[in-house]
Amino acid sequence: MLISCKKATELIEKKDIFGLTKKEKFSLDIHVFLCSKCKKYERLSEELDHTLMHFFNSKTDEELKLTEEKKEKIKEVIKK
Q1: Which residues lie closer than 8 Å to 29 by C-beta, 6 or more apart?
Q2: CB burial readout 29-58, b (16+ within 10 A) else e
Q3: Are 13 and 45 in contact (CB under 8 A)?
Q4: Which among 38, 2, 45, 39 is positioned nearest to 23, based on CA atoms?
Q5: What CA–CA distance (Å, rounded) separates 1 from 33?
Q6: 3-17, pLDDT tens digit by residue?
Q7: By C-alpha distance, which of 7, 25, 6 is closest to 16?
Q8: From which domain of life does this come (predicted)?
Q9: Is 11:20 a contact under the CB 8 Å cutoff?
Q10: Long-range CB pairs of 6-13, under 8 A, 24+ apart, other chains included
Q11: Least confident of 20-24, 44-48, 66-70
Q12: Which residues 6+ apart lie within 8 Å of 8 measured at CB?
């Protein structure tokens, strides 16, 4: 019934988007209770989700639109 850290991180990411079955939730709860690294991952994932939601909800559609200039800057950063 114990799951791996890899499976735990998959379930952590899945739970807010798709939800978990009772079995998945139980397995994740047990794993996170026993594994401090996954517990920290879960907390950081939730903080990141919250921060991104706040960022995107505070911007207008125009501010979020990628212009050709912005696209080129992103490409340059990626290449570096």
Answers
A1: none
A2: eebbeebeebeebbeebeeeeeeeeeeeee
A3: yes
A4: 2
A5: 14
A6: 999 999 999 999 988
A7: 25
A8: Bacteria
A9: yes
A10: 7/31, 8/32, 8/35, 8/38, 8/41, 9/38, 9/41, 12/38, 12/41, 12/42, 12/45, 13/45
A11: 66-70
A12: 28, 31, 32, 35, 38, 41
Q: Which two tokens stand for residue 3?
A: 């799951």
Structure tokens given for 70: 């912005």
Alpha carbon of 21 to those of 24, 27, 46, 64: distances in Å? 5, 10, 19, 35
